[in-house]
Structure formats: C-alpha cells, structure tokens
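Notes to self after the call with IL:
- keep both proteins in one doc
- input above output, always
- annotate only the second one for now

Protein 1:
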Amino acid sequence: MSRQIAAYLRAHPDATDTVEGILDWWLPVQRYEDAKTDVQQALRDLVQQGLIEEVAHYSGNRLYRLASPREKSN
C-alpha cells in the first residue's frame, strides 16, 4: 500500500487528500496505472512469443487477438 501511495504522489506531486479521498481516488487510479503497465508488458511478451498478434485499427488504436495459424509450406 505504501508503494502505491508513493507512486501516486510521484505521478501527482501536487495531490492532497483525506484518508477517504485517498481510498476513493488515489488508489483506484494507481491500481489502474499499475495494471495497465502490467497488461502492456504481458501483451508485448505474448506478441513476441507469437501467441497473440497486434493489429492496427483505423482509429489508430492497437487491437490484440489470438495469432492466426501460419500456413505450412511444403
């Protein structure tokens, strides 16, 4: 918990709040940021392993899906 609060404060150095505010606002935001970083790393690893593929969407977003089976050449 201390690491999450400290990480939030490093990212938002002007933040000030009550215990209730920290519980309601800071920790959910920090957990989201931590989870987002973890998910991004996991996706990079899975793409690198060839288990999933990343495709570009017309919106500019990246989408992830199970990798298509590659055709075997004889």
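Protein 2 (the one to annotate):
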Amino acid sequence: MTLDPAMKQFIDVLVANGKPPNFAEIGVAAARETAAMSGALLGTGPAMAREENLTVDGAGVSLPARLYVPDGTPTALLVYFHGGGWVVGTLDGYDATLRRFAKSSGCAILSIDYRMAPEFPFPTPVEDCYAATVWADRNRAALGLAEDLPLVIGGDSAGGNLTAAVAIVARDEGGPAITAQLLIYPATDCDFSRGSYQRFVEKLPLVSSAMYWFWDQYVADPDARSHHLASPLRAQSLEGLPPALLAIAGYDPLRDEGDAYGERLAQSGVPVTTMTWEGLAHGFFQFAEILPPAGLASDEMGAVLRRMLAA
C-alpha cells in the first residue's frame, strides 16, 4: 500500500502548515476556526440548477440546511451529514464537495447543520439527524421535488457514523423508508486497539490522537461509547438496514472499523458495495475539488450510487 503521490504532496503541504493541529492543545473554539478557514480553500464546485438555504426540523429545534439540485431530473434526495468528529464542520465547508457530488450522482442533496459536541454530545446529533431525515421525507414537495423521489442518507467520517445510526433508528422506529445509505470512511466503533489506529498516528489529515479527542467530546464517558447508536458496529443486529455504498480510505485510522462494518452488513444480508482507495487518506471526499485523485474517487462514488438507484 503506497500513498498516492498527489495525496502525499498535498499532505506534505498540510503538515508544513501545521495541520492537523493538536486539538487537545488548541481546544474546541480554535479547532472550529481552523476547520472553517480550511473549508474556504476547498474550491467552489459546479453551479447547480437550484440551491437554497433553509431550515429543517431537528430534535425540537430548527436546524440550518442547504439544498442542492443539479441539472436534470434528480435520481434521489440525499440527506447529508457532514464530518468533523462531531465537533467541527459547517455547511460552507462542504459546499464545493456536495456540489460536485450532486452533479456526479444526480442526487438533490440536503446538507444538514446538526448540533455538535461538546455543547450537544451524544445522542443529540443522532436525534437531530434522524429528525431532519423525517422532515425531508415529509417535505419533498416543499423542496420542489417529486413526492416519489427515493430517500438516501449519507455522510463522511462522523457523518458516516450518524448515517449508520439514523439507518438503525429508522429501521427500529418504522420509518422513514430509506432506499440507500452512503457511508464514507465512517466511524463505527469506539475500539482504539484496532490495527489501523496503531498504524496511522502522524502526518495525515486525520491521526489517531485526533479521534481520541473527538470521542472525548462526543461521548465523554468511555462506558457509554458502546451504545449501538454511538458505535453502530456493536448493534445487536444489522439486519433489515438499507443497501449501503461504503467508501474506504487506505490511510485512515478508521480503515479497519469501516471494513468490519461492511463485513457485518454483508453477513446480515444487507447489500453492500465497498469501494476502497488504498492510496488515499481520510478526508479525501472533502478535497475533491482541489486534489485530482480525490475528485476521481468522488466521481466514481457518485456514478456507482447513480447505478444503485437505477437498479
């Protein structure tokens, strides 16, 4: 396994500029400021046929959201939960990324600005994302979309964790009906003893120490982290969940738990398509507009999702 040369050059520039920072040292406010500044450097993405800033229902609150509708007839409505360790991440930081993915997948995308830890720890982000999914399911017409448009949920990293959790809640609560789930290098377990946690400890966009800190913010009590909605890999059953498109990065502390989740889905009878980019690192999806191999990976993912929805 060799890091893609363009990815390596990109990471070398990040490291030379002090990224990733030591989140435990700089704290939550500075981490969010750093993420926001980085998001402004991620490109602009393609123009959409229609876009709109709006609010959706969260768990008893209104949440900011952004709708992207690409040219042509949408293939699905994708409710998207951004990454950022449940602590950082914004609608603007994913703007270019989701524009590109809307174009490649054909999906109308509703990006959700859920409440984040440590102010709103587990289970609030799960509750917000589930409520937003229910809202989207009931409001296609209000979004200017066809009432029968398939509903898809997705997210990257912590957003992939929230996607897996929302799929489980939707199954257990009897709805809404979700056609597919998009899991981009998801956090699925709180077990730090996995091999990938031991291998990827420095000079990457996400290193193991950052995940330790993110988990401390999201679920401060280590014993509570084994709850199946915090660590979906620990759910008693994954049967009956929506078909999954699972994206894996080779250079990623979360690599092993992502692979394990895909294996459990398959063993549970859930159709799962796993796409692995051995030479890319965690975070590549967000770099799609500025890093060519990441852009190719994002476009390939969009094409596969489009085919899944057409099947």
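Annotation: The longest strand covers residues 272-281. The chain has one domain: 5-310.
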